């Protein structure tokens, strides 16, 4: 099925574009966004000119009216009153400061009158990506001239001085010194830099060092929430002043430092501060790509605790804007539809920063927002596909925020729509030829003999290649079982088990890493590798978890590229590989190469190696040059890094190219979908294999009963026995009852496991209906009998029959 390229996606709804031209190659990588390939590029020049004019207009800030003017003019005065609410807010704070009775006790911060905020004009960056790009690397540091840094005030307070002031205030109840520090420090971006810059005389204009005194920032923020309310309000007042002052003109590195510090403010966890927080996020989202580049690299230096807090705060902001607990707390969505796009884009910067470090600061799953599981995901997906070149925001542009469970829903529904489309077309073709419709034409019917499983499956899939996107149904010749899902599961299990057997020779099992890798042996026909790829694709397409042990590198190659190129001469399955990837497959060899890199002696004289490798194929030793004339180029201390990189690339890419290319095309012959652009390699692995971690206690909590109560003696015996089983027996039970020993993406609860009472004699063994994940259990009289019959049943569970 060929895919037409939808228009490119943009980064945010109703946001004017940022600088899209004149950026260094790959500059958009810091966004962590994903856009389908663009099919329409006409008229971009005219759009750019119009958008440039709009950008200039937005930079002309209106004057800030006084509170009385705002009250007289109301919110209908257009541009002149854009900041009326901020002015009211500042005035209200000043008026209330005098009337605060108890200034010595910390109280909850309350921001008055944010319901009717007149929002600033929205901004955004237009994302036009021609293909999916990795965020694992960022462009080279831009060499653009820096705006001149204004001179900073001299501030001499140290961490110790501040801590002493706080302790004195707590003891005496007099917070004047602390209040003065906070109100002065956060009054402007210059003051923020004066307080927290490690050396005010140094520019710190590089990505390596932000120049921020992180320890001082942590101490000040940790103490902030324990100060009286008027102190906390003075900080927010200062932030508002800073945001208004810094709205126009080019950003200096001091401005970026201030943004980086303000993002860490714990006050923004309170919904009453969300209006201010939203405007901060909007300004950061509007920065140039070069400025984002600095923020990404500086953010990766933030402590793990603070980094996680900022990410959680952004996720909470998005969730509460989508589903507010008290809608009256926020302005109407029509007036602030730029809140979520701005927050998502800032979150993308932190995702990019997280991806730059190995191991990452936090897990990629910490960026998941489970709230998105409850929105219309298919609408998001179709907006991303169909309206990419318009100013319509979609979370699919930022797939890192979408949980694996939500992505699974998107892929399943996309698969169902393709199944229905293919089946409908088959029906129409049949009717147009005046032939009688047959229900079997709506399915991919695979008929195999157990004794010739691989050859029959290969023949069936090759012969019915046009039907691969139909619903799969399997029939075992000579067996009366009807496939309602259980036969399909067993077919996958048996076929995978046979294909991956060492005697079959397609894959090599590495005991040290407990995973399979492609055999590099050359052969005349690679169709069986295509079959394995198609099997994996069918498993994802039909929501079946497979017991396949491929290393993570395999799934990275499977998404290189995620969409099959139209030009068949384009290389597929080739990705950047490192020594870490080799460690996951051949740890002993990788350790040896690592020793070579760290060897302190003379590599050329001591190792006497060249840029040539040797492999045994069917008892014959063959040599391969890693580069032209490699057998004549010695490995030295100077070129050993190149040697290791070429060796790793040879093992994981070049030596198995034909095998993996066939595997790649087999997988994508079934799973060709733009939904794959949303997935990380780790997520593809989870979709294919499910989770190997069994939590039988979770299965017990989610199990349904028919004819039994969970307090019945037989059920209590059953769970006592199962929870005491070894892992191997627990897997056998799961396979016996469901047809697979893998846990689906949603966990044990997604199995919908049911135990039914069997009214047969207790001499009978348990019976399973794998199509429905149902176990039929006779009412055994004691635990010993139940355990004995259950182990016999689950240990002899191959084959199907009808009663």
UniProtKB/TrEMBL annotation:
* InterPro entries tied to this protein: E3A/B/C-like, HECT_dom, Hect_E3_ubiquitin_ligase
Leading EC class: transferase
- Compositionally biased tracts (Acidic residues): 42-52
- GO MF: ubiquitin protein ligase activity
Biological-process GO terms, alphabetical: protein polyubiquitination
User: Which UniProt keyword terms apply here?
Assistant: Phosphoprotein, Transferase, Ubl conjugation pathway
Q: Which domain of life is it from?
A: Eukaryota
Query: According to its UniProt record, which reaction does this protein catalyse?
Result: S-ubiquitinyl-[E2 ubiquitin-conjugating enzyme]-L-cysteine + [acceptor protein]-L-lysine = [E2 ubiquitin-conjugating enzyme]-L-cysteine + N(6)-ubiquitinyl-[acceptor protein]-L-lysine
List residues of the HECT domain.
464-803
Name the UniProt record assigns to this protein: Probable E3 ubiquitin-protein ligase HECTD2
**Can you name the source organism?**
Pipra filicauda
């Amino acid at each position: 099925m060929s895919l037409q390229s939808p228009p490119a996606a943009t980064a945010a709804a109703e946001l004017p574009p940022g600088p899209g031209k004149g950026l260094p190659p790959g500059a958009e990588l810091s966004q962590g966004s994903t856009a389908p390939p663009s099919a329409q590029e006409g008229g971009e020049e005219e759009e750019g000119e119009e958008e440039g004019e709009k950008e200039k207009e937005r930079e002309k800030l209106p004057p800030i009216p006084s509170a009385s003017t705002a009250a007289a003019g109301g919110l209908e005065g257009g541009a002149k009153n854009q900041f009326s609410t901020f002015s009211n807010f500042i005035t209200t704070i000043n008026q209330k400061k005098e009337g605060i009775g108890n200034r010595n006790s910390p109280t909850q911060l309350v921001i008055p009158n944010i319901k009717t905020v007149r929002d600033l004009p929205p901004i955004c960056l237009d994302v036009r990506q021609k293909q999916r790009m990795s965020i694992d690397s960022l462009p080279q540091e831009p060499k653009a001239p820096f705006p001149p840094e204004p001179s900073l005030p001299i501030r001499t307070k140290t961490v110790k001085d501040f801590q002493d002031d706080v302790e004195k205030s707590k003891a005496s109840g007099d917070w004047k010194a602390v209040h003065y520090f906070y109100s002065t420090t956060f009054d402007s971006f210059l003051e923020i830099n004066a307080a927290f810059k490690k050396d005010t005389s140094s520019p710190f204009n590089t990505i390596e060092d932000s120049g921020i005194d992180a320890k001082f920032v942590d101490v000040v923020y940790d103490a902030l929430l324990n100060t009286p309310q008027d102190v906390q309000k003075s900080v927010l007042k200062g932030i508002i002043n800073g945001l208004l002052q810094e709205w126009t003109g080019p950003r200096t590195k001091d401005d970026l430092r201030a943004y980086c510090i303000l993002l860490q403010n714990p006050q923004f966890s309170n919904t009453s501060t969300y209006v201010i927080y939203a405007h901060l996020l909007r300004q950061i989202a509007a920065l140039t790509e070069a400025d984002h580049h600095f923020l990404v690299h500086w953010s990766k230096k933030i402590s793990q605790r603070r980094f996680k807090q900022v990410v959680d705060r952004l996720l909470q902001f998005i969730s509460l804007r989508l589903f507010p607990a008290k809608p009256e707390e926020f302005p109407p969505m029509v007036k602030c539809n730029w809140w979520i796009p701005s927050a998502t884009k800032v979150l993308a910067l932190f995702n990019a920063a997280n991806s730059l470090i190995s191991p990452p600061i936090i897990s990629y799953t910490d960026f998941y927002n489970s709230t998105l599981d409850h929105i219309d995901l298919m609408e998001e997906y179709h907006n991303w596909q169909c309206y990419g070149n318009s100013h319509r925001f979609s979370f699919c542009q930022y797939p890192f925020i979408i949980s694996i469970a939500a992505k699974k829903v998107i892929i399943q529904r996309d698969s169902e729509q393709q199944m229905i489309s293919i089946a409908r077309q088959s029906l129409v073709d049949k009717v147009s030829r005046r032939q009688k419709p047959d229900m079997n034409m709506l399915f991919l019917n695979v008929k195999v003999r157990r004794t010739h499983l691989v050859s029959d499956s290969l023949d069936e899939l090759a012969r019915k290649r046009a039907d691969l996107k139909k619903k799969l149904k399997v029939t075992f010749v000579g067996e009366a079982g009807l496939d309602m899902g259980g036969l399909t599961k067993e077919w996958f299990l048996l076929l995978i088990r046979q294909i991956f057997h060492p005697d079959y020779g397609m894959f090599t099992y590495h005991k040290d890493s407990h995973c399979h890798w492609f055999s590099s042996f050359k052969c005349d026909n690679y169709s069986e590798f295509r079959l394995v790829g198609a099997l994996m694709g069918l498993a994802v397409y039909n929501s079946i978890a497979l017991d396949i042990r491929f290393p993570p590198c395999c799934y990275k190659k499977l998404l290189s590229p995620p969409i099959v190129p139209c030009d068949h001469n384009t290389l597929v399955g080739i990705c950047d590989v490192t020594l870490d990837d080799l460690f996951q497959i051949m740890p002993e060899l990788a350790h040896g190469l690592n020793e070579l890199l760290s060897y302190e002696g003379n590599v050329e004289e001591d190792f006497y190696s060249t840029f040539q490798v040797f492999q045994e194929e069917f008892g014959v030793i063959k040599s391969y040059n890693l580069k032209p004339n490699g057998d004549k180029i010695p490995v030295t201390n100077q070129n050993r890094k190149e040697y290791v990189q070429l060796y790793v690339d040879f093992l994981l890419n070049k030596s198995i190219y034909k095998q993996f290319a066939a595997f790649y095309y087999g997988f994508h012959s079934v799973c060709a979908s733009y939904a794959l652009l949303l997935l990380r390699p780790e997520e593809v692995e989870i979709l294919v294999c499910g989770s190997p971690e069994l939590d039988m206690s979770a299965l017990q909590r989610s199990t349904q009963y028919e004819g039994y109560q969970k307090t019945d003696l037989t059920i209590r015996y059953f769970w006592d026995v199962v929870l005491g089983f070894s892992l191997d027996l627990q897997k056998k039970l799961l396979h016996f009852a469901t047809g697979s020993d893998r846990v689906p993406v949603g966990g044990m609860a997604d199995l919908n496991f049911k135990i039914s009472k069997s009214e047969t004699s207790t001499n009978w063994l348990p019976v399973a209906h794998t199509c429905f994940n149902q176990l039929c259990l006779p009412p055994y009289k004691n635990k010993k009998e139940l355990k004995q019959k259950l182990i016999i049943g689950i240990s002899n569970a191959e084959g199907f029959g009808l009663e």
